[in-house]
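Re: the 250-residue chain
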Amino acid sequence: MTVRILLLNPNTTESVTDLLVAAAEKVVAPGTVLIPVTATRGVPFIATRGEAQIGGVVALELLAEHHSTVDAAIIAAFGDPGLFGARELFDIPIVGMAEAAMLSACMLGRRFAIVTFSSSFGAWYEDCVDMHGLTGRCAGIRMLDTGFHSLSEVQSEKEELLVDLVYRTVTETEADVVILGGAPLAGLAAKVKHRIPVPLVDQVQAAVKQAEALVALQVRKATTGTFRRPPAKATTGLPAALAARIEHKD
C-alpha cells in the first residue's frame, strides 16, 4: 500500500524544505511517499504571530490545491499555522509539526521543554503550546539570543550553542524530554542525541510517524462537532482551489 503524505512548508525557503525531507525520509515506512511543497509567497521563516497568520493562509491555499491527491498532510512549521482551519476544511488527516512533536514527547516523559535557535519565536511558540492544551506539560521554552548567518545552515552554525542550551535546560527545568523546535533544526536531534541525557524529539520525524498512524487507522472526517466541514459559503477574490473548497464546488 502506498501512502502519500504532503509535506507542506508554509515558509518560502526551499533549502529548509530540503532539510525537512532529508530528516523525514530517515523514518518513513516502506510504501510512504513524501510530496514536498514550499510556499511561493510569504516570509522566509515564520517567527511572529502576524507571520503565522500569513503562513496559515498560504497553508490553506496549498492544501486546497493538493489535498485530493494525498492521504495525509503535515504543516511543516513549528507553531502549526493554519492547522485548526485545515482540519475543518479538508477530509484527510492534517498533522501539525509542533503538535506531533509535543504529543510524542508526552509519551516519553512527564514534562517536555522546547529549545530553539532564535528569541523571536518565544511568544508564538508559547501560544502554540497553549493552543494545544499542553501548557501544564511544558517545562519551558528556551531560545538562543544570538543572530545567525544562514537559515539553512543554522543548525551546524549553532550546534554547540544549542547542545549547551539543551543541557542547561534539562538541568534547570528538570524536563524529561526536549524538542528541538523550528523547521531549520530538522535532523539535528539525530546528530546530537548521544550528547544529551534525556530523549530528543525530532519535530518532522514525529509528524511523519503520526501521519502514517492516522492513515493506518483509517479515521473518518467528522460530520458533527467543531471540526466538521463548514457549510458552503460564497467567496470573493480567493484562489480558485480554496474558493471551490469553501463553496463546496470541488
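Residues 3-97+206-247 form a domain with the Rossmann fold fold (CATH 3.40.50.12500).
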